[in-house]
Beta-galactosidase (Allomeiothermus silvanus), 1935 residues
Amino acid sequence: MLGVCYYPEHWPRDRWAEDARRMRECGLSYVRIGEFSWSRLEPEPGRFDFEWLDQAIATLHAEGLQVVLGTPTPTPPKWLVDRHPDILATDREGRLRKFGSRRHYSFSSRTYQAHTRRIVTVIAQRYGNHPAVAGWQTDNEYGCHDTTRSYGPEDLLAFREWLRAKYGSIEALNAAWGNVFWSMEYRTFEEIDLPNLTVTEANPAHWLDFYRFSSDQVAAYNKLQVEIIRQYSPGRFITHNFMGYTPDFDHFKVAEDLDVASWDSYPLGFTDMDVLPVSEEEKLRYARTGHPDIPAFHHDLYRGVKPRWWVMEQQPGPVNWAAHNPSPAPGMVRLWTWEALAHGAEVVSYFRWRQFPQAQEQKHAGLNRPDFQPDVGYWEAQQVARELEGLELPPTQQAPVALVFDYEADWVTRIQPQGREFTYRDLVWNFYQALRSLGLDVDFVKPGGSLEGYRLGVVPCSPILHEATIRALHNTQAQLVFGPRTGSKTESMGIPPNLPPGKLAEWLPIRVTRVESLRPGVNFALEWNGQRYTSSVWKEWVESDLAPVAKFDDGRGALWQHDNLHYLAFWPTVAFLRAYLGHLANRQGLQTFSLSEGLRLRRRGHLTFAFNYGPHEQQAPASPQARFVLGGRMVPPHGLSIWES
Amino acid sequence: MLGVCYYPEHWPRDRWAEDARRMRECGLSYVRIGEFSWSRLEPEPGRFDFEWLDQAIATLHAEGLQVVLGTPTPTPPKWLVDRHPDILATDREGRLRKFGSRRHYSFSSRTYQAHTRRIVTVIAQRYGNHPAVAGWQTDNEYGCHDTTRSYGPEDLLAFREWLRAKYGSIEALNAAWGNVFWSMEYRTFEEIDLPNLTVTEANPAHWLDFYRFSSDQVAAYNKLQVEIIRQYSPGRFITHNFMGYTPDFDHFKVAEDLDVASWDSYPLGFTDMDVLPVSEEEKLRYARTGHPDIPAFHHDLYRGVKPRWWVMEQQPGPVNWAAHNPSPAPGMVRLWTWEALAHGAEVVSYFRWRQFPQAQEQKHAGLNRPDFQPDVGYWEAQQVARELEGLELPPTQQAPVALVFDYEADWVTRIQPQGREFTYRDLVWNFYQALRSLGLDVDFVKPGGSLEGYRLGVVPCSPILHEATIRALHNTQAQLVFGPRTGSKTESMGIPPNLPPGKLAEWLPIRVTRVESLRPGVNFALEWNGQRYTSSVWKEWVESDLAPVAKFDDGRGALWQHDNLHYLAFWPTVAFLRAYLGHLANRQGLQTFSLSEGLRLRRRGHLTFAFNYGPHEQQAPASPQARFVLGGRMVPPHGLSIWES
Amino acid sequence: MLGVCYYPEHWPRDRWAEDARRMRECGLSYVRIGEFSWSRLEPEPGRFDFEWLDQAIATLHAEGLQVVLGTPTPTPPKWLVDRHPDILATDREGRLRKFGSRRHYSFSSRTYQAHTRRIVTVIAQRYGNHPAVAGWQTDNEYGCHDTTRSYGPEDLLAFREWLRAKYGSIEALNAAWGNVFWSMEYRTFEEIDLPNLTVTEANPAHWLDFYRFSSDQVAAYNKLQVEIIRQYSPGRFITHNFMGYTPDFDHFKVAEDLDVASWDSYPLGFTDMDVLPVSEEEKLRYARTGHPDIPAFHHDLYRGVKPRWWVMEQQPGPVNWAAHNPSPAPGMVRLWTWEALAHGAEVVSYFRWRQFPQAQEQKHAGLNRPDFQPDVGYWEAQQVARELEGLELPPTQQAPVALVFDYEADWVTRIQPQGREFTYRDLVWNFYQALRSLGLDVDFVKPGGSLEGYRLGVVPCSPILHEATIRALHNTQAQLVFGPRTGSKTESMGIPPNLPPGKLAEWLPIRVTRVESLRPGVNFALEWNGQRYTSSVWKEWVESDLAPVAKFDDGRGALWQHDNLHYLAFWPTVAFLRAYLGHLANRQGLQTFSLSEGLRLRRRGHLTFAFNYGPHEQQAPASPQARFVLGGRMVPPHGLSIWES
Ligand SMILES: [Zn+2]
Ligand SMILES: [Zn+2]
Ligand SMILES: [Zn+2]
């Protein structure tokens, strides 16, 4: 199903009815509204104006459109901020982050929590049982503009409470953090500061707890909204629109309180701005299509975050916020929409209905131009709507491959990279690209999530192995491949007493006695299966009674296996992973492909989809018996085919 | 005529007379003094000491030298700042900009305005009718060191008043800025903040008004000084010394209150520091000459700002403030001086008489060395003085080509570049270089300035077309070439209801329905006149009933013409502009040249000047009948020739 | 002798005895302890706990180990900072530098000085006569994390007092700084601010005095500690552990109050992080060995700082703080240790005994792993200890070559580089590398230090020639080579009245009339001894009655000589210096070598050492009669040989 984001408050009322009619004509079913409209809903302190929203919803309803109503908390009005400056967040440099754009609040502000309760209650009470309201969106894009972490007085107070609750006694905290080092010991929780603006880096355990706290504050703030909505709006789903790779908070945790995950997909901007790392050469090649693995990575991630998921904002044309904002190649809006559906999206909703000719996003395209004419995206959306009419999409099944995605791993390696090029993001991306270029479908699983039923599992890097994670790793027949630094940290961000991989060593008897981080250009090689692979970035020294599966050229063991567990004691490149994971997949009975650049596959039930991000026609890897239900054996450039197998 | 900047307060009194004598011997006529001497003029609050200045002026007068007296406002003394800390400016990061160098004041400080009135009145009263005082300079280099915009409490109060005066009602402001977006609506003018330190970018309309306000504050501050001087110093000219490309304020507006524009020309520093964009290869080639178009660009700009203009500070040797400070190639001080005269300068004044061996500029060369010996520049200045004796310079005539230079365009595209490489500066520079390499003389015209009498006009980019601009564009027979984004904005920084080019579409019936900004390396091509041109950066989609003059290789129209109006729907390179503007110029009966690198032409009345920035002798493109009045047909490296035609 | 840094407070008490025993077994003699333990020594205000330290020292003593006791002042505890926030430093941007890591104090805080007196007195009283305490270390790594200069209210007050003491009258200061420029004149010392956060750069004389003041504050703070220790701990040596190239304070001055200099040697981190400039190619080549001249440079520097010197912290494995942290090549820990001894170190002490598995440095290797097993460094240290048993090291003799190292020169050129690439560090490094690749031993001499007995002296750049310096330069028979800008400044950071080289011109009659700083790529050439040398960065114009020894290709003189004095009027490359200094050395009867990359020589008494940083065996340049006392004629990769000659 398709939807759109709409801002009735931006347009004259006499246009609303026509807008609604044309949405229906386009084939849209859902309309998200309201999430930035606080100044219109409460123009003066305590004076509410719902009349316009009543009419807007009624107008959409009249055309049979379903509404997703956003709470307006990403943008508190100026009068509220002026009355309560303690709402504002503080950046890492200690500067107040002022009113004048959006997300100008700290999750830890008690005042803001109170006013959030107030506004959400009023809105939920009014619209909770409206027949047009199908669901709710809390706030908008948590964490956008680096707003997860704030460094002000309210944050400090909340952080101290969080620590007190976690550790109970200051002695326990001192021991957990190792504060005897550099005389960092505290006598009371009141002595603890935030970890920013220290003379040199603060204790990494201090940072890690601050990251965890900040993530928890997002979840708590979201839960605060959810509980009110559930009370007044029974039977409606609740979602939040997440963003492209934003590891600052644990999305799994936030989503525990949601019914539906959703995310905002801007393939061109993400490719230009390195939301996931894209080489310069790929940035040029995919400037007008986006990198072929970027949307899929997020579709799979957010399907892992929640089985029911949407694309809440789908790029419909050039955007305004990247360093470069080209026009999508013709056909790409349709392709992106279909790809989301192939990966299991319930709804793909375009952002936005019409380009608004003022303010910050005035150059962000919509389905319609600011002169009220349909833009390119309108026609491509309509095409998808029509194509969908003839096609029933089967339910999404479990994939054969699991990727254990670990937000905490991002924090740990970001706080203490040890080598400049070691980032969790890049490592996960290598694993994902390798799997996708083999034509394999991938499920993202949270640490501790069940791995039953998978044939292959990859854990790119999980420094901290919590009890639940260990248990899940044990309860699977899958071949499990662990990346470097897995098990290298205790829960308190220390080195395990038995050295890495810590608790994992009970099942995979190896011991990492030393690690090296390497400057780009300081390379090493390893040989596996008669083939030589070069890498850099990271290398580990392992002691074990096992014989290594592969060796570095200095004779040390590079790859270790015991039963179904495999450990990579180095930074694996895509080339190596494609070979090794392909080999394991085949051994596990999975068919793999050697997909050419730009071609990607995905199954949904009995349907197989092929997407061609490249500029030339490519042949779909379909069996001769395949029955094509959309497109054909030759997949056109920037096009797709679907077949039954 | 020639002049020099002099600081008698830096030198022992017993040297003044000899200095004055040697100035005369060098052939200098004007001496600028006083602009940094507040601590000597008012050493204690309210206690003035004019005795030294009386004597200094008398000494210069005795040698027949004319004085340009600078008001000392760029450097208020410490005691004044300590008494009134509200004088200080605040930077964009919110930090106070402290005393200890210069320009340590905010234009919006009411205290500083009052003290400016006080000191300027006293000085103007004392020297206003002195026979040696030929003119005045207000302050020094407005905007230097990023001082146009300030972000403190005084600035905020003044900004609110400015907005109140402009919009009358807060509703009007909210509508103009589109503040319904992201709930940015204000209830009163007191709710408005400055646009810095917001969570993400502030409303571009907010920024644009803040830029306009800041520019207006410069003009108001200058006017405050001018009015006092006019009252007490009748018959003297008033100038201000502007800088190399400094778009932060509207120089046309400031100059409305002046008699003479002047500017400070440092060709080597400007080339090294990218005051105008210079490729790395050109930086090396022109390290000791400066880029051949940089001085001329500014001469033409400031002649457009005011018909009477000077070079107030001419580089006489190595300076101290660039990243690299080489010595000018022998002859360059002479060449630069002559080039300024060729472009119409009344006076070229060297900075400074003698290198001061202390403080910030101790490594800034003067005409004399700190050991009191003449430096290289002295001899080159003297040579020009002697050459000038035998030559009467005719008045400067209107050029055949007009370039509409638009400060607001710089602000609009800087606030909202939409593509990282799109800067107004670079675009204007492309047009200017193309025209100059064709051997064409160029006048800079302000938006709304008359275009009558020109054969060719270029508007590199004017997003906001004010009424007067439209009128001027209509009242000319010139071929008019518009660059991309012209007409793309309303006065309130929105998209025009009819889409770009907005009001221009009434005369040039096209409609820009989409724009693309492109990463370097994402290129496109167009074909015109049988030739293929490649470009990048920016590309527009145009709808029109017209047939395009040239097409992109994707078949869309790239270049549109109607009557005498031409529109470039892309980022034009110098190569393309040289071809297209040369073609139009020829069609309009103008002779063009294909000047080799480093050779540049300029006419003044019946005289034609050729300047050779290159290291090899070059032949002047003079007719066989040309009569050379300086130099000859072969222009030596770093030299010039002048002939009558 | 060998030592180690140990933190008993990090480990269970029941492990101390075994640790001590194994230290002895390893062959270690000294143990540094205590320097970060304030929170354990005074866990509550005024309540001291020495019991643990008593026992720790007793335990070490029992194994015959000698203790170097560190004062715990680099890490005041949180309770002290909370009681006296004026202890904290302020960074250049005006931000408080908070508690949470180390070095969180300003040298100018009167409160901190008082508490330093208090804690040092208590500790010195208690342990001053302990038989196991052989010496003391004051604080730890002064200046680390950019802590030499602080910009807070306490610093301002102290700076004003320092200025008052230096200048006596404000008129004298105004004259010395040239404050008439830009009306920067002060009426009282109370008007003076710190030079940060000015609108554009502050007066360089203002900066230079602030740099001098900040350096003096370090020396005064150190002296404060030293005087207390001397009072209560007679007969013990006092040291401080300096760092890799840290020019912010004058180490010669601080060391005047010490008995022993020591420094912390981390060859791999220093190579990766450009502590001295290393090309990208060398960074790769020497990633696991460190650049071969980096340890030696510092050994020679700190031997110049104090004849008795130690390496207090020797890298024993990968560290945690560089951008990349590779493992040292096998053998390098041994090589580095021997090289320090060859250069005259009394003791080489490893950092640290055991890797601590928590807090900031948890990935910093020690001699032992966190799982209590010996790490690679342990075995290499033990090997050195055994090798040392059979070998008596003779005293260190004066080297034939002196390098005058001038901290103030770093400040002057950093404050006013005049050309972006001109840094004192790079220039000194060029001289040092040239000398060392010729196989020459080098002594570092402070400005004004005696040059008697040297055959060759180099003064890479000493802009300010104090009286004592001039005197020392005059009292030597050495050939003296001066680099550019020597003598170019007065004591007040002005240009000398007679132009550069100022006072030096009395003996070397030249006059620098102009300088040029050049963009990389703007090259010049000079010819000397039939060979052409290319350079960039810096070039001077010299007037003299002398005939130049070498000329630039523009005909000006490049190299000037008079008697034993030589002046380089340009930025000298390593290639040129190797040729010219080698020529002078040979003329002075010194043997030079053309050492291959990675091979380095050093003599200590009758012993000659060869160190091979390269990956291949190399032949030692030993005479056929040489008697090898360690290793042999072929020096293995990452190994060394020692012979008697
Ligand atoms: Zn969004
Ligand atoms: Zn100037
Ligand atoms: Zn250290």
Notes: Chain A touches chain B through 60 residues (CB under 8 Å). Residues 153-207 of chain A form one domain.
